[in-house]
Amino acid sequence: MKKKIFIILLLLVVISIYKMSGETIIIPNESIRLRVIPHSNNPIDINAKQKVKEYLEHNIYEITKDIKDVKEARTIISDNIPTIESNIDALFKENNYPIPYQVNFGYNYFPQKTYKGVNYKEGYYESLVITIGDAKGDNWWCVLFPNFCLIDTKEKHEYKSYFKELLTKYSKK
User: Fold this and answer.
1) Range of the structural domain that residue 6 is part of
2) pTM higher than 0.85, yes or no?
């Protein structure tokens, strides 16, 4: 009986900690979003979107990781647009993807979005948007500055819960 009570209490503690640890990240008003919209949802176009996304995650993170304010972010992003375009050109040539694309840094329309559990209204937001072809596919987006989503891609961690280990240990007895 004591074992069952212990397991139930432990389970309640684990659930409480899990719920309290859920992050709510609110995108600040002075932020810059990043969005890639593929030509369509067919596999070739989705693959092109994925390749652009992966390029951006790695390279944009590197050029923006030390930025401290939005003015500096604007300057660095603007200064790097020719490089971004050149690298996407090379990426498309390398993968035999002949669809045109456009890189736009400014105020771009975003439909309503949910990010980390918070809903954001549709509207025009400062952003770096890469549209591929007709841009009718499902987009990928994140927050470029401050680096909310690009940071997540840099490090993969495996977290172990002390409480989960205890629960596993005692549930086997």
Assistant:
1) 2-22+159-171
2) no
